[in-house]
């Protein structure tokens, strides 16, 4: 059994899909979809921090889209920037790409 739950994020330019694991770490269920506005730097970090604290999350997994040649394109760069902002808000939480 896990000590903390794991949350998975699918970061887009308009929404962030959120799934959360059970305490066994065997399954994940869709939890919520955050509405964001990437263009205006409204990323929903505050709402995500509340969810992470409320649900006792210890690890965040963020999807890292890559091109067919394994290079990181525009959406991948956006996901990496999202990670940096979330890590600033929650330095004690492990974030995996």
Describe this structure in words.
A five-stranded mixed sheet has the order 3-2-1-4-5, with helices on one face. The chain is built from two helices and five strands. The protein is about 25% helix and about 30% strand. It is globular. Strand 2 (about 15-20) and strand 3 form a beta hairpin. The protein has helices at about 45-55, 75-90; strands spanning about 5-10, 15-20, 30-35, 55-60, 95. It has about 100 residues and is α/β, with parallel strands linked by helices.
Quick take:
This protein is of the alpha/beta class and 97 residues long. Helices cover 27% and strands 32% of the residues. 15% of the residues are buried.
Q: What's the end-to-end separation, in Å?
A: 23 Å
The average pLDDT score comes to 94
Could you estimate the helical fraction of the residues in percent? 25-40%
Radius of gyration: 13 Å
Structural class: alpha/beta
What best-fitting shape do the alpha-carbon axes yield?
globular
Topology, number of strands: 5
- Spatially, the strands of the biggest sheet line up as 3-2-1-4-5
Oligomer: single chain
The low-pLDDT segments are none
Strand content: 25-35%
Order of SSEs: EEEHEHE
Q: Count of DSSP helices?
A: 2
> Main beta sheet, described?
5 strands, mixed
């Amino acid at each position: 059994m896990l000590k903390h739950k794991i949350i998975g994020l699918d970061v887009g330019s308009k929404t962030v899909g959120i799934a959360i694991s059970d305490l066994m770490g065997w399954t994940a269920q869709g939890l919520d979809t955050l509405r964001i506005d990437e263009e205006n730097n409204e990323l929903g970090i505050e709402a995500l921090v509340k969810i992470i604290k409320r649900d006792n999350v210890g690890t965040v997994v963020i999807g890292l889209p890559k091109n067919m040649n394994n290079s990181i394109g525009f959406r991948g760069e956006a996901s990496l920037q999202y990670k940096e902002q979330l890590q600033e808000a929650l330095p004690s939480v492990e974030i995996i790409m």
